[in-house]
Input
Amino acid sequence: MTRGRDVAVAVAALAMLASLGGQAGAASCGNGPGGFESWKREFSAEAQGKGIGAAGIGALMQTNYASATIAADRGQHSFRLSLEAFMAKRGAATIVSRGRSLKQSQAALFASIQQRYGVPPGPLLAIWGMETGFGSQRGNQNMLSSIATLAYDCRRPEFFTDQLYAALKLIDRGAISPSQRGSMHGEVGQTQFMPKNILAYGTGNLDVAANALSSTANFLRAHGWRAGAGYQPGEPNFAAIEAWNAAQVYQKAIAIMGRQIDGE
Output
């Protein structure tokens, strides 16, 4: 074989390896609906290779590009408000009033949760009220379409790719339906769990309040909650509230409302 022939063969081999490497890489993200169907096919092949079954793959292929989710993702402005403005906008006074009432009427449930997880009623009720108005506003978007769209979108694909894999696993297990409804970013249930947290901390159907509250307490305990310790900023349990939501105004609002509900 001549030297020129050797070089040609080597170049061809490198080109083939480069092509294979491109096929093995992650599905390409996009910034609009145009590439979503192609992305689904690429992602489905990757998901099959990672053990996602026929139910999950079938559900993924039925998803639609969620334009409303993208619009909501680009328009999150309330977390930039001052604490006072944020609490007023979210109806903190109403949450505290309703939370106190539910603390009394559901005393046995909250006593059981506190005995098991060490979390008192206040922060759980504050989270429940903040997330869904105590179950009245759980969202009406297709959960899987929302998460698949965000996994495809170039803004935060890594975070939502993990969430999408978790959602597909839950569908494969029959834990959630492909038609599950949720909020704009794929949060579901009474206290708005993302799929990875459902896998890790879920204690049943999260559209049922008792399950959602137990799951929330389970999450907080797993993130360092200590029974009897304080949960205001600077106190030991505030770190668990920080783990629930990254926005500082949200964290502080939960701590304040929780304290008021607990009567402290």
About this structure: Confidence is low (pLDDT under 50) at residues 1-24. Residues 2 and 248 are 68 Å apart (CA to CA).
